[in-house]
Amino acid sequence: MSDITRIDQNTRRSRASVYGDLVFLAGQVADTKTADITLQTREALAKVDDMLARAGTDKSRLLSVQLWLKTMDDFDAMNAVYDAWVVPGNTPCRACGKVELADPAYRIEVIAIAARR
């Protein structure tokens, strides 16, 4: 049985957990809370890229992505950024929905699972 590696852990959460060849990312949000959905999506996906790299993988190895939106009015603009970000031919399973996010300033939160090999 493999050990669990936790990345950027505090008393409440880890931003990523690695178990065997799987990487589980916590919800990633933008740094710029006042930004529109386009910038917030870019920032959240950049954090996904960073966490995957820290875990020894990249977005071409994504298995599943969950996108939580503050409002479905942002769906098309978010998709424009997301579609340019994913690796063609390696698109993961995906779910997207409207949720009440922990901070109302956030327009998007991204959760992902990836393989390392």
Write the layout of secondary structure elements.
Elements: E1 4-9, E2 14-19, E3 22-28, H1 37-54, E4 62-69, H2 75-85, E5 93-98, E6 108-115
Parallel strand pairs: 4-5
Antiparallel strand pairs: 1-2, 2-3, 3-6, 4-6
- Profile the largest sheet: 6 strands, mixed
Portion in helices? 10-25%
* Net shape: globular
Widest sheet, order of strands: 1-2-3-6-4-5
CA distance, first residue to last residue: 17 Å
Task: Output the radius of gyration.
Answer: 14 Å
Question: What is the mean pLDDT?
Answer: 97
Topology as a string of helices (H) and strands (E): EEEHEHEE
Query: Percent of residues in beta strands?
Result: 35-45%
Question: What's the β-strand tally?
Answer: 6
InterPro entries: RutC-like_sf, YjgF/YER057c/UK114, YoaB-like
Protein name: RidA family protein
Organism: Bradyrhizobium zhengyangense
